[in-house]
Amino acid sequence: MDTFTAMEAFVRVVETGTFTKAADALGRPKAAVTRLIQQLEAHLRVKLLHRTTRRVTVTPEGMTYYQQALRLLGEVRELEATLSQSRRGPRGRLRVESSGTISRLLLIPALPSFYARYPQMHIELGVSDCVVDLLADNVDCAIRGGAVKDESLVARHLGDLCYWLCASPRYLERHGAPLHPLELAGPAHAVVSYFSSLSGKENPFVFVREGERLEVRGRSLLTLNETNAYLAAGLAGLGVMFAPRFVVEPYLASGELVRVLDGWRPEPRPLFLVYPPSRQLGAGARVFIDWLTELFASRPNLWRDDG
Question: Where does the HTH lysR-type domain start and stop, copy by copy (predicted)?
């Protein structure tokens, strides 16, 4: 038995909760993963997992072994990454998740500079506003907006995105410009709403002015859960919308959108890079995170409301 391989298989079973998902993540047949766990238990002479037809649970002894195995596997990967990087620079695959607008407008246009530094890296970029299970989907890190409610993840705060409230000229011709946020909840106006793919709930419009915070649930004709589609709805005149400054700036410059409710600012939205605590960051992940931090720091229009 290859103890290191068996240890990796056991850790992945615990993290994903099933032999099937663990096998998929490891790229091995399910039978091979099952056999590795059986050999590991026989070698240790201890029961690590309780198995039923529906679920897998960890025994107390298994949890102790899992915690120590995480530490040992992390140290081995750290050593390998350090030696590999010293010889030829970071290399390998990195799975990243990000929203449509951040991917389209920030990440992808800047990636040539990343590959110029690290030509042996390969990024698998999952583009979606859906919140994925990082462990089950074998994701190394994800860029997420809003508060990180999953306490099992490590969250690195990248900054607070500046949002602007806008409407299309077509909408303003029909409805006029709102003068107060509460008008958005009345019959004279409509908003483009966004709902969370995780909770299914619509996000309210939250405004701040001189220390005052106002939450408004506007009257909406259309509710979406994808940022590019949300922008398209605003451009089509389906309601007042608020979106990150970096998203709407080009359309404000072209006249396709107009800022409204001057003096009331949408509440900034925190942006985080998250990753599982059990996944030791390799050299590739570390250089990507450093590069990403540099990229966002070089874009003041992400964070500043000075327009």
Answer: 1-59
